[in-house]
């Protein structure tokens, strides 16, 4: 039986992990600094929190389910207390990529992050289809990186990751650098920005007189079919008119060098701001 110390157990992400770890073979000791979080764990899950010293005593792995801005401070406080071979798990690559984890050759550093349920997922129940975040009812894929440690540690960390993000389908192994390209690079800098612009475009259509429900139905429906074609979900192609609209629209909406957001210095600066 593996003993886990879960820091931030009552927070937004930590609570999800607490739920998924509750009925497993892992022995979990929960640490939560906020009274609200502690009360939620106690009242909703019957979980009592403990001090960090108690949680760390005998821990095989420590999960840092806390904001990126405090991971460095927390890691520097607890890593010196860990026994050799203890695994430290972060749920995002930012702090690890930015160098906020303390140098200590005796511990293992493992980074993992959910992909979240695919928009083309095959869920059949309405409840699972409405699980947009994942880690509850809808199956999702995950990415993981062994930043530091021996090869045998990857499977240990991956098994923990599959548990905290369950139900999981594909589990991908990447490097910390590749995970940083995926997030914030691909998922936030690019995808979230483009989706925000799409929402602003919808709002502009409404401002110009189109009913909001009409505009929303039209946009989301086209996102579905256009996305299915672009991402090879179906064997299809755009009309000549659509292709001409893309050729005309891209230079008006995007800078010529927009793809520079994936350059190492741009990724590093984005993560610097995050952390």
Give a quick set of tags describing it.
alpha/beta, Rossmann fold, 7-stranded mixed beta sheet, 11 helices, 15% strand
Can you write the helix and strand succession as a string? EHEHHEHEHEHEHEHHHH
Q: Give the termini separation.
A: 34 Å
Q: Specify the number of helices.
A: 11
In which order are the strands of the major sheet placed?
2-1-3-4-5-6-7
Total domain modules: 2
Q: By CATH's scheme, which homologous superfamily of the largest domain applies?
A: NAD(P)-binding Rossmann-like Domain
Q: Mind summarizing the main beta sheet?
A: 7 strands, mixed
- The CATH class assignment of the largest domain is Alpha Beta
Question: What is the overall pLDDT average?
Answer: 97
Instruction: Give the low-confidence spans.
Output: none
Give the overall shape, derived from the CA principal axes. globular
Mind telling me which CATH architecture of the largest domain this is?
3-Layer(aba) Sandwich
Approximately what portion of the residues adopt beta-strand conformation? 5-15%
- Helix proportion range: 40-55%
Strand segment count: 7
Question: What does this entry look like structurally?
Answer:
The protein is an alpha/beta fold and 275 residues long. The chain folds into two domains: 3-174, NAD(P)-binding Rossmann-like Domain (Rossmann fold, 3-Layer(aba) Sandwich), CATH 3.40.50.720; 181-274. Helices cover 49% and strands 15% of the residues. It has eleven helices and seven strands. Helix 7 (152-164) links the parallel strand 6 and strand 7. Helix 8 packs antiparallel against helix 9 (212-230) and helix 8 crosses helix 11 (264-274). The radius of gyration is 21 Å and the shape is globular. The two termini are 34 Å apart. The mean pLDDT is 97.
């Amino acid at each position: 039986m593996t003993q886990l110390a879960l820091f931030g157990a009552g927070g937004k992400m930590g609570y999800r992990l607490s739920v998924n770890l509750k009925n497993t073979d892992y022995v979990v000791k929960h640490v939560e600094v906020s009274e609200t979080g502690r009360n939620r764990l106690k009242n909703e899950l019957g979980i009592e929190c403990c001090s960090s010293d108690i949680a760390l005593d005998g821990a095989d792995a420590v999960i840092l389910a806390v904001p990126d801005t405090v991971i460095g401070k927390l890691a520097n406080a607890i890593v010196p207390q860990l026994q050799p071979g203890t695994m430290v798990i972060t749920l995002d690559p930012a702090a690890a990529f930015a160098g906020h984890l303390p140098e200590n050759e005796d511990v293992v550093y493992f980074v993992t992050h959910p992909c979240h349920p695919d928009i083309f997922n095959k869920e059949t129940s309405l409840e699972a289809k409405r699980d947009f975040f994942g880690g509850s009812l809808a199956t999702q894929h995950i990415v993981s990186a062994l930043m530091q440690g021996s090869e045998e540690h990857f499977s240990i960390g991956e098994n923990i990751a599959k548990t905290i993000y369950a139900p999981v389908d594909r589990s991908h192994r990447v490097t910390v650098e590749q995970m940083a390209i995926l997030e914030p690079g691909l998922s936030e800098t690019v995808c979230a920005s483009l989706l925000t612009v799409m929402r602003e475009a919808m709002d502009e259509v409404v401002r110009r007189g189109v009913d909001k429900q009409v505009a929303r139905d039209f946009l989301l429906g086209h996102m579905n079919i256009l996305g299915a074609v672009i991402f090879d979900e179906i064997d299809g192609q755009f009309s000549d008119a659509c292709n001409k609209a893309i050729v005309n629209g891209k230079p008006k909406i995007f800078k010529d060098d927009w793809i520079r957001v994936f350059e190492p210095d741009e990724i590093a600066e984005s993560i610097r701001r995050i952390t």
